[in-house]
Design goal:
With about 375 residues, the chain is mostly helical. The protein has one domain. The chain has 14 helices and four strands. Helix 1 packs across helix 8, helix 4 runs antiparallel to helix 5 and helix 6 packs antiparallel against helix 10. It starts with a strand and ends with a helix.
Length: about 375
C-alpha cells in the first residue's frame, strides 16, 4: 500500500519537492538573476520576502481568476498519470539538481514534462511537438526583440551605463527594476508552475464544448505555497548559486538600469506567449534568445566586448540548451523502458495528428517577428 502524506502519495510529494527547488534554482538566472546581481549589497532576506510576496499573489490570482488552476492552463493537455506518479517521473527533477550544481542551464519544461508527454498515450499525442515548436519560435522572437531593441538603444544607453559604472544611481532606476522584476517573475510563474504542480493530484473536467478545467484543492495549494516559499529561502541565501554566473558574464547585467530593460522585454515576451495558447514552452530558450540578440547587438553597435567573445558566449549557451534537451529526451525514453521494457513511440508523441495549436504558434510567432505596417 502506497504511503500518503496530506492526501498526496509519497512519490508525488517527493517529485514536487525536487521540482520546487531544482526548477527555480536552475531558472533563477532568467527570472531573478539580474535582480540578485544588481541588488547584491542588499540583505537576501529582503529580496526573498519580495519574491515570496509575488509567489503568494500569483497563487491567489490563479485560485480566483482560473478557478483553482494554479498551472494556468498549462496542464490542460497533460493529464495526471493513470497509475499515479512513478519513480521514473521523479528522476528528472533530481537530475536537474545535479545539472544546476554544475551551472548548466537547461529547459526545465522539457526535462520535467517530456517524460509525462511521452508516456501519456493518446491523451498527449503531439504535445511534445507543439512544445518544441513554440519554444523554437519563442527563441526566434526573443532573439529578434533583443537584437532590435538594443540596436536602437545600445550606442547611447549601454555606453552610458558602462561609462557611469560605480557612480551613484538614481533611486528611480531601483524602483523601475524592482517593478520590472515583479512583472517578469509573475509571468514566469504563470508559465512554469505547471512543471512543479504536475506532480500533485488534481481534478480535470472536460466540458461538452471540449474546454478543459483543471483544479487543485485549496489545502494542497496552501501547503505547496508555504513549501515553495521556504525552499526559495535556500536559493536566495546562496545568491543563486553556480547558475548565477551565466548572468554575470553578460554585458552590464549587474547594473539595475540595464537589468530593468532585460526584465521588462523578457516579461512582455512571456506574457505574449502565455496569452497565445495553453501549450507549455521552454522559458529558458526564450531567455537565451533574448540574451543572444542583446549581446550581439551591443557588441556590434556599442563595441563593449569583442565580437569573437560575444559569439562564443552565445554559442556556448545554445550548446548547453541543446545538451539539456538531449538529456530530457534520453531520460524520457530510457526510464520507462527500464521499468516496462517498452520504448514510448516518440514519433507519434511528437508529431501526432495535425495540431491546431502548431499552426497558431507559427502564424502568431511570425506575426510578432514581422515589422509593423
Amino acid at each position: 500500500m502506497e504511503l500518503v502524506i496530506l492526501g498526496v502519495p509519497l512519490l508525488a510529494l517527493v517529485g514536487f519537492l525536487f521540482a520546487s527547488y531544482s526548477i527555480v534554482a536552475n531558472d533563477v538566472i532568467q527570472t531573478l538573476g539580474t535582480f540578485l546581481s544588481s541588488n547584491a549589497k542588499r540583505p537576501w532576506v529582503l529580496l526573498w520576502a519580495y519574491a515570496s510576496s509575488i509567489i503568494i499573489a500569483v497563487m491567489l490570482y490563479g485560485w480566483f481568476a482560473y478557478d483553482g488552476d494554479i498551472a494556468f492552463g498549462r496542464l490542460n493537455r497533460i493529464p495526471y498519470p493513470e497509475l499515479g506518479i512513478q519513480w521514473w517521473h521523479v528522476l528528472p527533477p533530481l537530475m536537474l539538481l545535479v545539472l544546476t550544481r554544475f551551472g548548466i542551464p537547461v529547459s526545465t519544461t522539457f526535462l520535467v514534462l517530456t517524460i509525462f508527454t511521452l508516456t501519456g498515450g493518446a491523451a498527449t499525442e503531439g504535445v511534445l511537438g507543439d512544445m518544441l515548436l513554440k519554444s523554437f519560435v519563442g527563441y526566434l522572437v526573443a532573439f529578434a526583440a533583443g537584437g532590435l531593441v538594443f540596436l536602437v538603444i545600445a550606442r547611447l544607453f549601454e555606453r552610458w551605463v558602462a561609462r557611469t559604472q560605480g557612480q551613484p544611481i538614481s533611486p528611480v532606476w531601483f524602483v523601475a527594476q524592482w517593478l520590472s522584476t515583479a512583472f517578469l517573475w509573475s509571468q514566469w510563474l504563470m508559465q512554469d508552475l505547471a512543471n512543479i504542480f504536475i506532480f500533485l493530484p488534481r481534478e480535470t473536467v472536460i466540458a461538452p464544448d471540449g474546454s478543459v478545467q483543471v483544479t487543485f484543492s485549496l489545502g494542497l495549494i496552501v501547503f505547496a505555497t508555504v513549501l515553495m516559499v521556504a525552499l526559495h529561502g535556500l536559493i536566495f541565501a546562496s545568491r543563486g548559486g553556480e547558475i548565477q554566473k551565466i548572468v554575470l558574464t553578460k554585458t552590464n547585467t549587474v547594473d539595475p538600469r540595464s537589468a530593468t530593460f532585460v526584465d521588462l522585454i523578457y516579461g512582455l515576451i512571456l506574457f505574449y506567449f502565455k496569452e497565445l495558447n495553453d501549450v507549455p514552452m521552454s522559458t529558458t530558450w526564450v531567455f537565451l534568445g533574448l540574451l543572444a540578440g542583446r549581446e550581439i547587438a551591443i557588441t556590434y553597435v556599442a563595441s563593449l566586448r569583442s565580437k569573437g567573445e560575444a559569439m562564443f558566449d552565445v554559442a556556448t549557451d545554445v550548446l548547453r540548451a541543446g545538451i539539456g534537451l538531449a538529456v530530457s529526451v534520453a531520460m524520457a525514453l530510457a526510464l520507462p523502458f527500464m521499468a516496462t521494457g517498452a520504448f514510448p513511440d516518440i514519433r507519434q508523441q511528437i508529431f501526432g495528428q495535425a495540431s491546431p495549436a502548431a499552426s497558431e504558434i507559427v502564424h502568431e510567432g511570425f506575426a510578432a517577428l514581422a515589422p509593423p505596417d
